[in-house]
């Protein structure tokens, strides 16, 4: 896995908070506690335990870190919404490691190659929010990550970094891996919480937000793997350092694990300053394979809107990509080339999205399979007159605010943007 990481760039401690340890270990996974400790492992936790939880929250807020799970919500603000103080009682920290978004494989790398980094990040975050129990909600197919994380948890417990009275601080935290059974909806934070509790994995009404009433009705913070893995270096090196990592490329802060998949020469994953461009990424990926040209691209997984070649120069950050009519999502680009059939690409994504509807709300349960049926007919040249207008109408009915959660709106993003940019291709599939 790491061979596909950072090819062509040098990951340094000063500039690559997420991946410098892999580079320092010669491109290998850092799997033992001693190897991790030799690379400043747990130094941030030791420092954090001398600070107050509120000071850490403040630092994370000042750093400008935004959630890397897709929505980009500011992490420090999320943490500050959790009740603190002696009366706040039991609280939970959940790491969202479900990563079932097609085209997305960044969290897997962090967990397989740097399991102790996630463990340290979680102890530190738990201290900052006053959580006594934590779960890593892990995609079931990530077998290697599960093995390595469990081994890291065991070793950290033995060394006193987890469990009761961590490093003599009086703070106690228990951490467990929960392996999912393979539903995309379990990545949605409230469905995830239901699943963890042993209930049917459907999303919950918000409010109340998990920060007020999450797992077992208690205040809970859910954060993505990559989000959490940034926290130790923010504590060690400071908020200003983290902000500056963006190097003027973006109003956002830090770095981002960006990736490219599709028919490029070197698909892979790179840690770059946030706000780097898709053009830079495409260069690192070695450009399109011989004889192929870029037709279109998804900026951040299968539930974002397509963008075109003219967008390659834009900063890949939350606000810039939103202004261009899409979303940064997970930041892992999926490239579609000119030999592919865009209607079939959309159909393929829709098969996944319709299958993964949890069935809780009618618009999503009924709307996605119907949408698939119509896209499928068009892809086979059997579309009926009026189908394209009907699909456009459906993108409004299944758009933000109408279904119960963000699954169906996300599912419609590739479709709505494909119709916007490639209407002619859809028209070719309508029977005259
Ligand atoms: C259908 C669906 C699937 C999702 N899957 C994931 C996922 O696999 N990993 C993730 O971190 N966030 C996922 N999210 C977003 C989470 O609900 C939540 O916003 C995120 O875990 C918050 O963490 P962050 O603030 O650190 O980004 C998903 C959302 C939806 C609607």
- Which small-molecule ligands are present, each listed once? flavin mononucleotide
Spell out the CATH superfamily of the largest domain: NADH-ubiquinone oxidoreductase 51kDa subunit
Query: Which spans have pLDDT < 50 for at least 5 consecutive residues?
Result: none
Gyration radius, rounded: 22 Å
Q: Any guess at the CATH architecture of the largest domain? A: 3-Layer(aba) Sandwich
Order of strands across the biggest sheet?
Answer: 3-2-1-4
CATH topology of the largest domain: Rossmann fold
Strand content: 5-15%
How far apart are the termini? 49 Å
What is the percent of helical residues? 40-55%
* Overall outline: globular
Task: Report on this structure.
The chain has 432 residues and is α/β, with parallel strands linked by helices. It folds into 3 domains: 2-240, Rossmann fold (3-Layer(aba) Sandwich), CATH 3.40.50; 245-337, Ubiquitin-like (UB roll); 342-427, de novo design (two linked rop proteins), CATH 1.20.1440.230. 41% of the residues lie in helices and 11% in strands. It has 18 helices and 8 strands. The protein has helices spanning 20-24, 33-38, 43-48, 53-63, 75-80, 106-113, 115-129, 143-158, 189-196, 225-229, 231-237, 239-244, 278-284, 318-323, 342-355, 362-379, 387-397, 407-427, and strands at 92-97, 133-138, 174-179, 220-224, 255-261, 268-273, 294-298, 332-337. The strands form 2 sheets. It has a 4-stranded parallel beta sheet with strand order 3-2-1-4, sandwiched between helices. Strands 6-5-8-7 form a 4-stranded mixed beta sheet, covered by helices on one side. The protein binds flavin mononucleotide.
């Amino acid at each position: 896995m790491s061979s596909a990481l950072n090819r062509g760039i040098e990951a340094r401690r000063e500039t690559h908070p997420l991946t410098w340890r892999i580079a320092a270990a010669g491109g290998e996974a850092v799997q033992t506690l001693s190897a991790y400790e030799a690379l400043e492992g747990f130094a941030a936790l030791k420092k954090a335990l001398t600070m107050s939880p509120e000071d850490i929250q403040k630092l994370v807020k000042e750093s400008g870190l935004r959630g890397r799970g897709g929505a980009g919500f500011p992490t420090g603000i999320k943490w500050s919404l959790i009740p603190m103080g002696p009366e706040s009682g039991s609280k939970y920290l959940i790491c969202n490691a479900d990563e079932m978004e097609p085209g997305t494989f960044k969290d897997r790398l962090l967990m397989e190659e740097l399991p102790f980094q996630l463990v340290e990040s979680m102890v530190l975050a738990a201290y900052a929010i006053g959580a006594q129990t934590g779960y890593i909600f892990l995609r079931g197919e990530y077998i290697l990550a599960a093995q390595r994380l469990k081994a890291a948890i065991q070793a950290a417990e033995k060394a006193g970094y987890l469990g009761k009275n961590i490093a003599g601080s009086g703070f106690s935290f228990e951490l467990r891996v929960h392996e999912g059974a393979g539903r995309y909806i379990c990545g949605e934070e409230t469905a995830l919480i239901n699943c963890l509790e042993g209930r049917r994995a459907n999303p919950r009404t918000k409010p109340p937000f998990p920060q007020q009433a999450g797992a077992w009705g208690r205040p809970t913070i859910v954060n993505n793997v990559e989000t959490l893995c940034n926290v130790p270096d923010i504590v060690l090196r400071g908020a200003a350092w983290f902000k500056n990592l963006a190097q003027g490329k973006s109003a956002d802060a830090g770095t981002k694990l960006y990736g490219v998949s599709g028919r490029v020469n070197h698909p892979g994953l790179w840690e770059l300053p946030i706000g780097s461009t898709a053009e830079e990424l495409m260069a690192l990926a070695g450009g399109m394979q011989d004889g192929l040209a870029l037709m279109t691209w998804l900026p951040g997984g299968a539930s974002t809107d397509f963008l075109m070649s003219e967008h390659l120069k834009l900063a890949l950050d939350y606000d810039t990509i939103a202004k261009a009519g899409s979303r940064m999502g997970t930041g892992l680009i999926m490239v579609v080339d000119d030999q592919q059939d865009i209607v079939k690409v959309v159909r393929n994504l829709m098969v996944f999205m319709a299958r993964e509807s949890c069935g809780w709300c009618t618009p999503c349960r009924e709307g996605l399979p119907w949408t698939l049926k119509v896209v499928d007919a068009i892809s086979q040249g059997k579309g009926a007159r009026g189908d394209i207008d009907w699909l456009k109408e459906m993108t409004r009915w299944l758009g933000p605010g109408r279904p119960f959660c963000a699954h169906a709106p996300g599912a419609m993003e590739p479709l709505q943007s494909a119709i916007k940019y490639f209407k002619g291709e859809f028209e070719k599939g309508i029977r005259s």
